[in-house]
Amino acid sequence: MSALPELAPFAWPLLALAACIVGFSKTALPGANTVAIAIFAAILPAKQSTGALLVLLIVGDVFAVWAYRRHTSWQTILRLAPAVVAGLALGAAFLAFASDGWVRRVIGAILLLVVAVTVWRRYFSLGASAGSGGRTGSIVYGSLSGFTTMVANAGGPVMSMYFLAAKFPVQAFLGTAAWFFALINLAKLPFSFGLGLIDASSLALDLLLVPGVVVGALIGRWIAVRISQRVFESAVLVVTILAALYLVVF
């Protein structure tokens, strides 16, 4: 484990908690992984935190896809795909030239925008169509999700708002989100390796944190099959807003 990064003792339990949150967010509460983003970004350099977190997200994706494999709207995923690809490419180009300081500032700005979108959808667009604005909504949400997930692994809150606006039941919400982010995160791997965001140090760190992802995913699955639609939607909104505000402030 000589490749492990040098971290303060207090950092390890925080990273373990973040790993659990990653797993939990994948199988129960999309958007909660914003808290994990905050923890990783506070402990590791911004770019390194993005690469290390990506591998853990993919591990969580495996559990989410398996748990909700029968509850996926492929039509929704295909409709979003072109805009997401464009957002990923833009995000990769940004990371190639941005410093850690710029990445941190963009993470804050991205999540502040997510808060604004959340409030707008909740209080001003309750009469919007199920498709979150149809083709325009797919382009806006898809491209923003692609960019935010490439730059900061923060596409979850954006797409949570899209799926909520589409009025997806809990199982369909989680199943569509599972496959959506599984495909996106796999597509991000070549970019992340090419940009040096994933290296021996981050992989060694991930190896130690994978058990936390597994525990969180199992807990999330247990809760998801027991939660009501109303409580689920409220929890998604609250977690998205609070986690985004936390990152912007700190």
UniProtKB/TrEMBL annotation:
The keyword Transmembrane applies. The chain crosses the membrane at residues 12-44, 51-68, 80-99, 106-124, 144-165, 172-191, 203-224, 231-249. GO terms for cellular component: plasma membrane. It is a multi-pass membrane protein. It holds the Pfam family TauE. InterPro entries: TM_pro_TauE-like, TSUP. It is found in: Cell membrane. It comes from the Bacteria. The keyword Transmembrane helix applies. Keywords: Cell membrane, Membrane, Transmembrane, Transmembrane helix, Transport. Belongs to the 4-toluene sulfonate uptake permease (TSUP) (TC 2.A.102) family. This is Probable membrane transporter protein. It comes from Leucobacter chromiiresistens.
